[in-house]
Amino acid sequence: MQEKTIKKKIESVRRDLADAGPVLKGSISKVVRGPRKRGSGDRIAYQLTYKGDGNITKSVYIPKSQVASVKTMVRNHQRARDNLAKLVELNVLLLKLQNASLTSEP
Predict the structure, then answer these.
(1) What distance in Å separates the CA atoms of residue 75 and residue 28, rounded to the nearest whole number?
(2) Is-contact 85 78, C-beta < 8 A?
(3) DSSP-based helix, strand, coil % in the chain, nearest 5
């Protein structure tokens, strides 16, 4: 791959990373809390579970009305992580190309 192509890809990934939007780390779980005292059906709650400071697992209650937006933020976090990994790989490739061109010069 040529240096120009790699630089274009780096800029593209940087733009995607900048456009990630709001992010949340973790996963959403649906928790069934047992049957309702009145009426029929189960009591259902949603939680966001993530690792906090000191690698301690934490959970946060998510109201049903916010589940869709929280899922979007979790997906945004995953995309940002993927883009960051791509950026690292592209920068390593660019570094290798630049080092190769330096060592091949007379």
Answers:
(1) 11
(2) no
(3) 55, 25, 20
> CA 48 to CA 73: how far, in whole Å?
11
> What are 17-33's pLDDT values in tens digits?
999 899 999 999 999 98
Q: What is the pLDDT of residues 68-92, one digit of tens each?
A: 999 999 999 999 999 999 999 999 9
In the chain, domain spans: 3-104
Contact yes or no for 26/46 (Cβ under 8 A): no
Amino acid at 91: N
Q: State pTM to two decimals.
A: 0.80
User: How many CB atoms are located within 10 Å of the residue 50 CB?
Assistant: 16
